[in-house]
Amino acid sequence: MTNYASTPASYGAATAGQDALLLAARILLGAIFVQSGFGKLMALGGFIAGMESQGVPMATIVAPIGALVEAFGGLAIVLGAWTRLAALLVAAFTVAATVIAHRYWDAAPDAMKMQQIQFMKNLAIIGGFLSLVASGGGRFSVDGWLSRR
Q: Cα–Cα distance between 1 and 29 in angstroms, integer?
């Protein structure tokens, strides 16, 4: 049991609400991947063409795998199912997407700042996923429910 008397009040409040915070984090991190991943699956040809135009080798194989990881990994994160594995997979997907699509150092001068913003945003998202790898999904998750059975 943590002794909250020796810790700042804000730490105690955050720890007491940790499961609710993890739920919010999972929903906020995962939602964009669910939306984007299922969008890519519904327009797979366009996603493949986009990857080919960026020089991705074997785009016809890589694109469906990436879209599946993005969609179902995002859904697993929202639900808190296999949270650590899903967060690790979607973090790896985000690293690959960042290196492929947001190389601001190669962008035209008029696009460089926006690509740098997207690159840095993705780094923050990767950090959020790594936090979920470390913490797990919390009590308000499929993982948490299964651990109480």
A: 30
Would you say residue 119 lies in a domain? Answer: yes
Q: Is 2 among the domain residues? A: no
Q: Is 101 helix (H, G, I), strand (E, B) or coil?
A: helix
Q: What is the pTM of this model?
A: 0.86
Residue 54 token pair? 């960026």
Give the model's pLDDT for residue 105.
87
Which residues constitute the domain of residue 35?
22-144
Q: Is 28 part of a structural domain of the chain? A: yes
Environment class of 88 (CB within 10 Å of its CB; exposed 0-12, middle 13-18, buried 19+)? middle
In angstroms, the CA 97 to CA 93 distance is 6
pLDDT at residue 107, as a whole number: 87
At 1, list the tokens: 């049991």
DSSP state of 118: H
Residues of the chain with pLDDT below 50 are 1-2, 4-5
Domain total for the chain? 1
Question: Has residue 110 been placed in a domain?
Answer: yes
